[in-house]
Write a structure and sequence with these properties.
500 residues; mainly alpha; 22 helices; 72% helix; globular; disordered C terminus
């Protein structure tokens, strides 16, 4: 579908323009004005994502809202944008999360405020560019550019070990991405000098070529998700990042790597994907079980939720490599749900941290006595993180478990342990922090969430319940595109290897 208006370009460049404007005019001596510009900019930038949802034709696959302009004539690269049922929902999710991140930082950030909000707005546009790019070089530019604002968000406004966490985050993700660039240059040559991703997906490639390409993409995307055992940068990044940074990192940035699997690895190297599926399934199950157990022993709330994110993203990669309609749709649904649930959990921790300046579970207890409205909302998100039915956390996990059982019963049985482990670490943390008698004078002096915090948490609660109760429209929109992807994966493209 082509649109008379370039909605995707608006969604990408409007937040970037507002971010640049804040850099140009923002001053710390006018914090109220800076906050208002950031909030207005994030809300206005989200408006172009509405037509993407309302005008999307769910009955067919392929790219819609296509924009294509010659960018670099030699090599042949285009400013080529479009979304299908797989990428559609991540564009409004990114824009929506940016608004939540701005609200989450309303009182927490007091220095270099204009630069802080500018980093979030620019990051929002770049992440939407990743989901909308249909040109390989354009995808790579957006994919790598997202590292810069997040590096600054962690390194400038983070906690005591922010420099260590920021450098670790940057080096892990950058090194993996360099191999992806090599793979893209090879595909460019094989496509006759073309960076069009849709052309790459139709290339007849030999098995060894596919395997090398798959491993190169795996190096980039597994770190970004992150998969076990290249996950160690994530807990450090989450712990040191400010609340807004943790919300965006968990809700959106982890999804960039998972999205790369369905856009590059599976359709471009289908035979290698089938060959490597047992390895990826095994790694995914390790993430679900082992990382779930690691989350159980955490004493820092942010670390606990960070490890739970790794476990939940293990469900995503598991669903992809089952090669079934149910599994892939469940994985994509899990990605979207995780964006809301994990973002809400980090926001809840941020609400308490802003008041006590502590993330240690042992420093809390009896919060329900002083913050009853906040406690009610946090309970919903803890339940969603556990996979409670009627919340978004249940839908994706159930679909992936169902697909796993159809694939191999024991894989489904092991995957289902996440429901037990998720309930254990989420509800254990909630019980110790929220219930019981007031633990100390600090908790006794806590004030309940204010209107701004309740609004942000309330909107997230509506999203979690909406997807949990009625996920059909979202799954219907991705159905045709997932069917097309499965048709590509099922069609063998093996030819004699030719490394020219």
């Amino acid at each position: 579908m082509s649109s008379s208006l370039p909605w995707l370009s608006f969604a990408i460049w409007m937040p970037i323009a507002f971010g640049v404007y804040l850099l140009a005019v923002g001053r710390d001596r006018a914090p109220g004005l800076v906050r208002k510009i950031a909030l207005v900019g994030s809300v206005i930038s989200a408006l172009p994502t509405i037509p993407l949802m309302t005008d999307f034709d769910a009955t067919r696959g392929g790219l819609q809202f296509v924009e294509r302009i010659a960018w670099i004539t030699n090599p042949l690269a285009h400013y080529y944008l479009g979304v299908d049922g797989i990428s559609l929902w991540f564009v409004p999710l990114t824009a929506f999360t940016t608004i939540i991140a701005v609200l989450a930082s309303w009182r927490a950030i007091e220095s270099r405020m204009a630069q802080y909000y500018a980093a979030f707005l620019i990051l929002s546009g770049l992440m939407i560019g990743v989901f909308a790019a249909a040109d390989g070089l354009l995808f790579y530019v957006f994919f790598e550019a997202t590292l810069i604002p997040m590096y600054l968000i962690i390194g400038v406004w983070g906690g005591p070990r922010r420099i260590y966490a920021a450098i670790k985050f940057f080096l892990y993700t950058l090194l993996g991405s360099l191999l992806m660039l090599v793979a893209m240059v090879y595909l460019y040559r094989q496509a006759g000098g073309n960076f069009d991703i849709t052309v790459w997906q139709r290339l007849p490639l030999g098995f060894h070529a596919q395997m090398l390409l798959f491993l190169a993409f795996l190096a980039a995307f597994s770190v970004k998700i992150p998969m076990w055992p290249v996950h160690t940068w994530l807990p450090d990044a989450h712990v040191e990042a400010p609340t807004g940074g943790s919300v965006v990192l968990a809700a959106i940035m982890l999804k960039l790597g998972a999205y790369g699997f369905v856009r590059f690895s599976l359709p471009i190297a289908p035979d290698a994907s089938h060959a490597m599926a047992p390895v990826l399934i095994a790694l995914s199950l390790v993430a679900v079980v082992y990382i779930g157990l690691v989350a159980l022993v955490q004493t820092d709330m942010k670390k606990l939720v960070a490890y739970s994110s790794i476990a939940h993203m293990g469900f995503v990669t598991l669903g992809f490599f089952l090669f079934s309609q149910t599994g892939i749709e469940g994985a994509i649904t899990q990605m979207i749900s995780h964006g809301f649930v994990s973002g809400a959990m980090f926001l809840c921790i941020g609400v308490m941290y802003d008041r006590t300046h502590s993330r240690n579970i042992a420093d809390y207890g009896g919060v329900v006595n002083t913050m009853p409205r906040f406690a009610a909302l946090m309970m919903l998100f803890a339940m969603a993180n556990s996979g409670l039915p009627a919340t978004s956390g249940f839908v994706g996990e159930f679909l992936v478990i169902l697909a796993s059982v159809r694939y191999e019963f024991w894989i489904g049985a092991i995957a289902a342990t996440t429901l037990v482990l998720g309930a254990a670490y989420s509800l254990w943390m909630y019980k110790r922090v929220i219930f019981g008698v007031v633990a100390n004078d600090t908790v006794a002096k806590l004030r309940d969430a204010d209107g701004r915090e309740l609004f942000a948490l309330g909107v997230l609660a509506v999203a979690v319940l909406w997807i949990g109760v009625y996920p059909a429209p979202m799954i219907h929109a991705m159905h045709a595109s997932v069917s097309d992807l499965l048709a590509q994966i099922a069609h063998t493209k093996i030819v004699p290897d030719n490394f020219q």
